[in-house]
């Protein structure tokens, strides 16, 4: 993947998805940019707002991105899983860039499950099937015990580019 121009885009409420995004960007030698939510999601009220938006399949107001996804060969998009769904900031990013995304790959952090459903939603919103997927539990992300997941993700991408 080093010959391709890769961008890692992610949203992280608690830092788990950010840690995974940084590890993936390093492994892929990629540029990285966070999706910045305009709402404060800290504390219990932020958590409840996040769950409610996911259950309602609503997007969130996000800051404009600095990078144009059309400038890349692959955009790797990461989300925390909220109520077995894609997070509302990532939902907004995908909807806002539908038709502008090159090849995509997805990653997520989750309590224990919900990654496959979140990936299905991401695919539907983006209008593109991912080239690869990487789902990691929040516990694995917190302890940085995701090396095997990253290796499998990289192998999926390598297989698809051969």
Structural features, described:
The chain starts with 5 loop residues before the first strand and ends with a helix. The radius of gyration is 14 Å and the shape is globular. It has 6 helices and 6 strands. With 162 residues, the protein is α/β, with parallel strands linked by helices. Strands 1, 2, 3, 4, 5 and 6 form a 6-stranded mixed β-sheet that branches. The longest helix is centred in the last third of the chain and has 15 residues, at 147-161.
Blueprint of the fold:
Layout: E1 6-10, H1 16-28, E2 31-34, H2 43-55, E3 74-82, E4 85-86, H3 88-97, E5 103-110, H4 115-126, E6 133-137, H5 138-142, H6 147-161
Parallel strand pairs: 1-2, 1-3, 3-5, 5-6
Antiparallel strand pairs: 3-4
Number of DSSP helical runs:
6
Rg computed from alpha carbons, rounded to a whole number of angstroms: 14 Å
Strand content: 15-25%
Distance between the termini: 10 Å
Total strands: the figure is 6
Which residues sit in consecutive blocks of at least 5 with pLDDT less than 50?
A: none
* Main β sheet profile: 6 strands, mixed
């Amino acid at each position: 993947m080093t010959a391709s121009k890769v961008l890692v885009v992610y949203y992280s409420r608690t830092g788990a998805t950010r840690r995974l995004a940084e590890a993936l960007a390093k492994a892929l030698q990629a540029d990285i940019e966070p999706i910045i939510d305009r709402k404060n999601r800290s504390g219990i009220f932020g958590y409840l707002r996040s769950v409610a938006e996911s259950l309602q399949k609503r997007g969130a107001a996000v800051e404009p991105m600095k990078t144009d996804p059309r400038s890349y060969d692959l955009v790797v998009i990461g989300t925390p899983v909220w109520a077995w769904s894609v997070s509302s900031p990532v939902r907004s990013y995908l909807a806002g860039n539908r038709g502008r995304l090159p090849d995509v790959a997805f990653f997520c952090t989750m309590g224990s499950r919900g990654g496959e459903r979140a990936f299905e939603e991401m695919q539907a919103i983006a209008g593109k099937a991912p080239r690869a997927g990487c789902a990691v539990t929040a516990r694995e992300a917190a302890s940085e015990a995701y090396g095997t997941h990253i290796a499998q993700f990289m192998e999926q991408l390598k297989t698809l580019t051969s």
